[in-house]
Write a structure and sequence with these properties.
By secondary structure, this protein is an all-alpha fold. The protein is built from 4 helices and 2 strands; from the N terminus they run E-E-H-H-H-H.
Length: 146
């Protein structure tokens, strides 16, 4: 508890908030996972009216992407609350998402409005992003570690 000199409330003690580095890093990583999952869900929802024109490979990739987006959102939500299974699920979701980028964007097997010139750059950038967030999540530790 922290005391603040205030003449109006001389005996009120403000609670100490856990705003240390690991707490903030965990919350940022959780927010990025949640936003990544929601962004993917919005993109997939926009493709629903045209699903009948895609082949089985594309439909399989889109279904896998939907499952990975669900894992990202769920692990981000659990990471926000610092639940124990959040870290392995989040790291697995990031690895799966980075691996799915190769056939989806790199090999252009899924619909995308990305310029073909930049497709491998986008795959590489997402792989770096996923690796950085994965290492960041591993570094934040668990409840007992802060």
């Amino acid at each position: 508890m922290t005391r603040f000199p205030d003449r109006r409330f001389p005996d009120y003690q403000f609670p100490d908030f856990p705003m240390h580095d690991r707490f903030v890093q965990r919350r940022i990583a959780a927010a990025l996972l949640i936003l990544d999952g929601l962004g993917t869900a919005v993109r997939l929802m926009s493709l629903l009216p045209t699903l009948v024109v895609y082949g089985p490979v594309t439909l399989t990739l889109l279904a896998a992407r939907a499952l990975v987006a669900l894992l990202q959102f769920t692990s981000g939500w659990m990471l926000w609350d610092d639940r124990p299974p959040a870290r392995p699920i989040a790291i697995a979701a990031l690895i799966a998402s980075a691996l799915l980028m190769i056939p989806e964007v790199g090999l252009r097997l899924a619909p995308s409005n990305l310029d073909p010139t930049f497709r491998w750059w986008a795959v590489g950038a997402y792989a770096i992003y996923a690796a950085a967030i994965g290492m960041w999540i591993r570094r934040t530790g668990h409840r007992s570690g802060g």
